[in-house]
Protein 1
Amino acid sequence: MQDHGEDFPLTRVPENARYGWFSVAVQRFGQMSALSQFLLGATLGFGMKFWSAFWALTLGAVVLEVVSIIVGIAGQREGLSTSLLARWTGFGRYGSAMIGIVIAVGLVGWFGIQNAVFAEGLVQLIGGMPLWLWSILAGVAVIAIVTFGFLSMGWTAYIAVPLFLILAGWTIINGLSHHALHHLVMMAPPGPLLTLSQGTTLVAGGFIIGAVITPDMTRFNRTAGDVVKQTILGITLGEYTIGLVGVLLAHAVRSSNVVSIVYSTSGLIGTIILVMATLKINDWNLYSSTLGIVNAIDTLFDKKVSRAKTTWVIGGLGTILAAVGILQHFVGFLIILGVAIPPISGIMLTDYWILGRHRDQLDRSLSKGTLPDRMELFNWPMIVAWVGSFLLGYFIQWGIQSINSLVAAVILYWICSVINARIVNQPKMVEETA
């Protein structure tokens, strides 16, 4: 299970299997350079003035960067994926299995939905085959990329990201050449107005799950400084470059339909490149969902399964659901997960950076290149904090719901852990192989 093809789903990533910061940064930027990011920018531009959209992107990016850096450095230090690290950052044995399943369900759902959107775009642009067949072909393409792991996903990013940047430049030249830039910057939004709070919510909420699963990527980084550089570069460039282009184009075309916008400014080739870029974020949706499932099976059934084989099973399921159109009915459920998943990072960062309950175990095992030989079976402060922060985030409509749930998790988990520490001197531990 420790070969490069499997990508170390149940072990630490060793130093000799890590990459330079730029290689990982390209993948981080690849997550942001997708059809969904153009859609976000166009949505902001359709309902906001340019500078209002700029500040919404700025505030949202700062939130995402802070969360990504804090949990990302923990993943880099330990060389562990999100669901595996969770075993020793507040969730314990059964809690880590639970979050592995929750993250997997959320991400495979988004994998299927983005796959369906991708297929619909190909039907409109190329045609020739029914939607279900395009869905299957698109799904198989992503599954094949993810099967070979981080290395093949990196090469995909090296191809997709430059093409996307070329498209963005071409779109700016073609789409904006007939408009005065100062006019587009100063013009009123063509659609219903969005407030700054609503715009920031769209930006932060749209990628908060990606921020939570940052350790899945940063475990391949060599230093904490690499995590900071790649996060700031990837997210900032992604939000500003792609997001602001979308804002200006929405003003120029007076529409939020991103495929129509790009087609009207760049033609068929540009639109195909844009739709193809969706593959770059969808591979990470599938990759992280398989890591969560592999961890869940290991913790619940003490059975190690192949990450590559799991990719075909999970990816195949998502592809089939996308092909038959079932996943379109799960959007509301996935939005709920968008409030339920952020508290995971709040609990993890509190346990790891503030309370440090298992840092000694992690440090000792890190020096040996192994996992700690002990873990909690159950941690009641985590359950209280997770459920409580989800309810607060879901029912309190003020501000950014996903961020509200994350902050509430930090506060609730810290309070509950302090109370628990006074009741029992130390967590109940069980001797077992991690």
Note: The mean pLDDT is 85.
Protein 2
Amino acid sequence: MSQEKRILFGVDESDFARQALAETGRLLRHCENFKMTVFYGTAEPDFSLISESVGQDPGAIEKVRKHWELKAQQIVEQARDTLTQSGFDPGRVSFMLDPKCRVPSDAMLKIAGREGIDTIAVARWGKATLSQQVMGSVTYRLAQLATNLALWVIDPRIRSHNVLVGLVGAPVSRRVVEYTVRYFSHLKQSKFTFMHVTPPIPPQYWDAGEVSDLERHETQEKMALWLKDYTDKVVDIADDAKRRLVGAGIPERNVILKLQPQKIGISRDILLEMEQGDHGILVIGRKGYKAITEFPLGSKANKLLVSGRAFLICLVN
């Protein structure tokens, strides 16, 4: 577990961003292998328009420019103070200010690629988020474009540091487990719950109506084999996760596997477990079995991202 981990956190001048940054600092402060880059990108004002208001006086325009530069620097300093107050080691933080940034999400993706950072973190809401929006525009754009990275979307009202990991019987769950162990196993006192909601029986096993007893029996046997194979894959992944977490120092009693049939819908069942189980971190794959290339997010991940509140959701590529 000594491998260095790097996170790129995007901030703006909103309280939401500072609160989310503080929560991230508290979450990661006890793990010395974490390093964080805090990025603030802002578009330079149109000084040609400003000159129409203040005239052609170079001194007046320069005063506006200095004020704008000072404000941008103050936001970076506020982010520095926020992390320090959260208990995160200032020596493990670097800051980047882009004063000519027009699209912060694109800038962050470029930085992550250039610096070899595999995780981007942002607040759910930003400075320009309207009250009826479920997330900020930068956050939404990253959710669509950061397909080769892990993305943390943080609601500052995190309930706890207990971790719920959504599993399916697909290869993506192996990557989800690997990421969970790498990025969250420093939470030695947290509870790790690996949850799988069994989906409805596939259509090919539905009752076809007027069939013979033999045909019905054969269908039931096939259905039982399908369910066993599906469940065995999930249990195997969960067993591997438990072994690795315990090896990383998590008490065995704190690692739980929860299998349940779908009740009201897979996404809604997970959200209900998040609330009732006092989980504050949700780790899921971007896509499950249906890796449709036209869509950057699977339907369940999209529903959880849009509907989730009061927790950190981590989308693993």
Note: The longest strand covers residues 34-41.
Protein 3
Amino acid sequence: MRDGGNSVIVVEHDRDMMLESDHLLDIGPGAGIHGGRIITQGAPGQLLAGESITASYLRGEAAIAVPAHRRKGNGKKLVLEGASGHNLRNVRLEIPLGTFICITGVSGSGKSSLVEHTLYPILNAHFFNGVRRPLPYKKITGLQHLDKVIEIDQSPIGRTPRSNPSTYTGIFTDIRNLFAASPESKVRGYQPGRFSFNVSGGRCETCKGAGVKTIEMNFLPDVFVQCETCSGKRYNRETLEIRFKGKSIADELDMTVDQAV
């Protein structure tokens, strides 16, 4: 593609791809709020001569250690026989349970067909009455050794302004309980629901607890603007008067994970 006169930009972590590039940019120095800066850019040799985390791994000074011992598991196994969907050729898959298992292979070799489109639908139907039909297979044994199956894929967790790490992980319930347990909350008769931005009572009713207002742009993506009533804090004045260690519920939600820890 490059030899055809194109400019090819790749976001990549693979060592060989990085070292084969004509121009390499290293962004860091860390992740999240600790990143966001260009550390080095230029030929790969410039990065190798630098002091970044990436450079130390490329030079072999830092490495991810290979475990000296592997988990033996619980001695039980799940066996899938005769998987023949798509390009699978009568595959027999034997999975040791109680261990960390990786399915690998070149692109298009059948990994997704075997795991996502055969094994997972079988387990989902068995435990949760899922209706997704698996690709053809002959037999599966060992289901009695499992009690559930959870699929974690690369689809976005959510795209709503109401979402945040505390709601995803479930700890927001504990945070609301902390605010409701404060002496001032008890005097006022506030319950944990008062500190939820999804129900009426403690939230800002102008933005319905979203902190932003949505402007529909018809043929363009919606635009979110800060609520003029609560200034993006999501809650009404009375709710924000309750403090835990000097911070309001809005202050808590505005923290990074590191700050909250």
Note: The beta strands are 24-28, 37-42, 77-83, 91-96, 139-141, 212-217, 220-226.
Protein 4
Amino acid sequence: MIIVVKPGANDTQVHEIIDVLEKNELKAHVSEGAERLIIGVIGDKSRLTPGSLEVLSGVEKIVPIMESYKLASRQFRPEGTSFNVKDVTIGGKELVMMAGPCAVESEEQVEAVASKMVACGVKVLRGGAYKPRTSPYAFQGLEKEGLKILRRVADRYGLLVVSEITSENDIEYASNYLDIIQIGARNAQNFRLLSAVGKSGIPCMLKRGIAETIDEWLGSAEYIMSEGNYHIMMCERGIRTFETATRSTLDISAVPVLKGKTHLPIIVDPSHAAGKAQYVEPLALAAIAAGADGLIIEVHPDPKHALSDAAQQLTPEAYAELAQRVKEMAVIVKRSYPQPVA
């Protein structure tokens, strides 16, 4: 359930509510919106004496949340969530553009991409350092050295870094290099990892599991939020269906569905959904038209010789053309497109 606090309630009244919850071994998650302060309540509500909250002077009303995901629910923050990662706003009016190679192969490779992406409004450099692959014989990434490369290149161009972490044991080390932790599709229901990322407090991009329903996906987000980390963006990257023309089926409908179910920002990854470079642009445009808050796209200076996912990666030149189309779409949906990093 959520407790809607009366407008103008003072700190003493708010603390009185929290004290009652904590005395009954319930967790209180406070969300301060533009107009209202809301307290999300997690735990066994049967511990509460009937009417014990309603009589408190700071309580305006109590709203039950029927979904299993309480903190991720739209009811918890009806106006939607936006947050800053350094100087980049996630979930605001301005679209968030993320781009970079599927896997970090060398500093020269990442440099060749980043040097072109900054002129296209990209604010977040992506790249895989840890690469969970279907085959144990495929390239597994440069791991720690890959993180160092991403950080060095990003700092040269004033970019943020997002990269996937596959184990809770790597979070502490990765926190020295990453601005945003990506939880990949294969780990979307790795609940130990989700909880550990929640405890870390590091902003997180949570990709949808390849066979997760939307409610299951929001349940994954709840694991992170229940540990106190609300800086989460959901990333639709395609799901497994019977169709084989693309690598996965990009669930465009997930964008408006999520907008109704959750307050969290939504990023779309058309690269992994498409699996083929020629489909990335139309899927990216469809995502923005549907209401996505940003895109994460794979770009490689020489896709034919990429060590992973060669078929789906764009050249920097192709990405520049896509960025121009996205900028035009942004005008139509009344969003702003990011200016190049100075």
Note: The radius of gyration is 21 Å.
